[in-house]
UniProtKB/TrEMBL annotation:
This is Delta(3,5)-Delta(2,4)-dienoyl-CoA isomerase, mitochondrial. PROSITE patterns: ENOYL_COA_HYDRATASE. Isomerization of 3-trans,5-cis-dienoyl-CoA to 2-trans,4-trans-dienoyl-CoA. The lineage of its organism: Eukaryota, Metazoa, Chordata, Craniata, Vertebrata. Belongs to the enoyl-CoA hydratase/isomerase family.
Length: 319
């Protein structure tokens, strides 16, 4: 059977409760214990089968999904490598923001229909209860492949061109910012199952229209770039892939120049308000800031603002 992605739980945990997710984000236990120096050297050069990680600018990593000859149809290695990669991004204090895009003609053609079919048909277990238990465990492992994007405290920007199908929609719905090119299209595909790795949980909160979410989910309606923009699934549309990547990297660079205490704390607290009612989120941010307001970054930021400079002029310490 498939080995567990590092850091994932060994028993079916069901879908993660909001507080699990928040706890994991705020107090992430290193999945692979690694010195900061090691992590810094590790990621850009790290060899993955399905991901290429490039250092684009100071503190900005570009993660490119690879399998262009199969239009980024994702195989077994992908599910494991995404977890490894973004756990490392989370630990790597020299990475402040990430862009994720597809190599070749599209962002992602969903699961590898040839290679992954047997994964769900062939579940181990001596009886139905044990098979169900093992299947639940597998589903939770697959969920971790995209949940890791939310748990990573560094903002992740999805830059989508061409097709973004099935698992591609699950992936982008777990990202913090979504941009696309004019040629992008998005689709849920009918393969006879309920989507179970994030789309159905995220889209109703992301998109402005329940009706459109239902349409996408029930009819497999193909959404083109203008429609995804008007429905808020993406926040910006660019003329082509080149412009898309340029602008996504610019946004990541802007984020990377800011105080990590501010940016990462903002991501954690936005996720808190996504999951919890306002009074609870207000209480959480008060508790958060009772320590984080003691950062030197505030004084440094105020000083450069007074001098009419930008955050890129501040030597913020690593986090
Ligand atoms: C754990 C479960 C969690 C999540 C589950 C999610 C469900 C899904 O993801 S279902 C989605 C399944 N995907 C699809 O139905 C998309 C199928 N592909 C396409 O529609 C098209 O390939 C395209 C993405 C629109 C691109 O079209 P085009 O540019 O014309 O390329 P093609 O000639 O069609 O394909 C080139 C090459 O790639 C192979 N390929 C494409 N998609 C897949 C795929 N999903 N699985 C396996 N292989 C794929 C295609 O067969 C071609 O291969 P050749 O060997 O060159 O024939």
């Amino acid at each position: 059977s498939q080995s567990l992605p590092s850091g994932s739980q060994s028993l079916p945990s069901g879908s993660q409760s909001p507080s699990d997710r928040l706890g994991a984000t705020a107090l992430q236990v290193p999945a692979r214990l690694m010195l900061v120096e090691e992590a810094e050297q590790c990621l850009p050069g790290h060899s993955f089968e399905t991901l290429q990680v490039m250092l684009e600018q100071d503190h900005v990593l570009h993660v490119e999904l690879h399998h262009p000859e199969k239009r980024i149809a994702v195989n077994m290695a992908f599910w494991r490598e995404m977890v490894e990669c973004f756990q490392d991004v989370g630990q790597d204090s020299s990475c402040h923001a990430t862009v994720i895009s597809g190599a070749g003609k599209c962002f992602m053609a969903g699961i590898d229909l040839m290679g992954m079919g047997s994964e769900f048909m062939m579940v181990e277990g001596e009886d139905r209860a044990r098979k169900a238990w093992n299947l639940c465990r597998k589903i939770c492992e697959y969920q971790e492949t995209f949940s890791v994007l939310e748990k990573c405290p560094k903002p992740v920007i999805a830059a989508v061109h061409g097709a973004c199908v099935g698992a591609g929609v699950d992936l982008i719905s777990a990202c913090d910012i979504r941009y696309c090119a004019q040629d992008a299209w998005f689709q849920e595909v009918d393969i006879g199952l309920v989507a179970d790795v994030g789309t159905l949980q995220h889209l109703p909160k992301i998109m402005g229209s329940w009706s459109l979410v239902n349409e996408l989910a029930f009819t497999t309606h193909k959404m083109m770039a203008p429609e995804v923009q008007s429905s808020s699934l993406v926040s910006r549309v660019f003329a082509d892939k080149e412009m898309l990547l340029q602008r996504a990297l610019e946004a990541a660079t802007t984020i990377a120049a800011r105080s990590s205490v501010a940016v990462q704390g903002t991501k954690v607290n936005l996720l808190c308000s996504w999951d919890h009612p306002v009074p609870k989120s207000l209480r959480y941010v008060a508790t958060w800031n009772m320590s984080m307001l003691q950062t030197e970054d505030i004084l440094k930021s105020v000083q450069v603002a007074m001098e009419k400079k930008g955050p890129e002029d501040v030597p913020f310490s690593k986090l």
